[in-house]
């Protein structure tokens, strides 16, 4: 893929935040010309598809300040510094839904916005949940929903679910379910 | 959803770029405490699922500076100022793949990174393609791939496709295809 690579000439650090950093890179394009790239650095995140004993998917409704509204998502959260994604997934599941688990299976990982950010989300699934109690972050407030796979699929179709990672996870689960029939 | 809302107390504009802007908002949480939110403003984007006369999906392999590597995606690009998403989709399709179309159907829209960015992607589909010629942006370089739906699905499963919007679009197409059987 050598013919597609952009070489960094200079990196300007613009901002270091508590969640993201921002830098602007001057790059040399494959044709020798130069351009600039605005790049958001993100620590990475985990998301979890939690399935109850009754076969329901647990979703959370959360206010997202970036959007100025609430949206429905699977439980998710950013990686803490040096944290193993599996530990992070277990922690986020318990914090957001109140469920504990001793069995989390890794499904896949994906980039969310490769045009401007390096965020990589690791997706886990579990169908072994034990009821604990919610223990949200100081700055986290959310409602919990439990829906069947058919209901979740309908929420993707009618755009009640408007979040890429959540829709992807539900359609992935549906593909797996249809293949095991 | 009143009990989940975060009220903005102050907005600090950090950066205005050619693609994204960055601001930090001080917010009042539902419990009355304050916190800060780092928010990336994005103009929004379009993505296209182009299907050839032979039933192949057109994908592009592109170097993404944010990731430091090439990844496989459906054709996509950001909205120009004041541009209608449908016009943008037609333009991006032709620029990136060389195909023109007079028929683009809107499928759905989704947020990519609601935790820190407002990017909303509008997804279109077309199976009416006419061969034109590629006309990429000055700073855009990519390779074109044509794959069957089965091959695309396999690329999602084996993580050759590592991009959320692309995997979501392919699994959505698969769901629709399986329902019309």
TrEMBL record, chains A, B:
Alphabetized InterPro entries for the sequence: NUDIX_hydrolase-like_dom_sf (IPR015797), NUDIX_hydrolase_dom (IPR000086)
Alphabetized Pfam families for the sequence: NUDIX
UniProtKB keywords: Hydrolase
GO terms, biological process: nucleoside phosphate metabolic process; ribose phosphate metabolic process
One GO CC annotation: cytosol
Domain Nudix hydrolase: 40-169
PANTHER family associated with the record: NUDIX HYDROLASE DOMAIN-CONTAINING PROTEIN, UDP/ADP-SUGAR PYROPHOSPHATASE
Protein name: ADP-ribose pyrophosphatase
Annotated source species: Halalkalibacter wakoensis JCM 9140
């Amino acid at each position: 893929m050598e013919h597609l690579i952009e070489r960094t000439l200079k990196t300007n650090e613009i901002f270091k935040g508590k969640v993201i950093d921002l830098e602007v890179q001057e790059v040399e394009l494959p044709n020798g010309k130069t351009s600039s790239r605005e790049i958001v650095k993100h620590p990475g995140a985990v998301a979890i598809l939690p399935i109850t004993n009754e076969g329901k998917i647990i979703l959370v409704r959360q206010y997202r300040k970036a959007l100025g509204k609430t949206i429905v998502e699977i439980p998710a959260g950013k990686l803490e510094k040096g944290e193993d994604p599996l530990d992070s997934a277990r922690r986020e599941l318990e914090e957001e839904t109140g469920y504990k688990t001793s069995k989390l299976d890794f499904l896949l990982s994906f980039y969310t916005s490769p045009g401007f950010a390096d965020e990589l989300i690791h997706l886990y699934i579990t169908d072994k949940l034990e009821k604990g109690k919610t223990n949200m972050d100081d700055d986290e407030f959310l409602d919990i929903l439990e829906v069947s796979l058919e209901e979740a699929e309908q929420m993707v179709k009618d755009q009640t679910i408007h979040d890429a990672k959540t829709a992807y996870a539900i359609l992935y689960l549906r593909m797996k379910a249809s293949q095991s029939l």
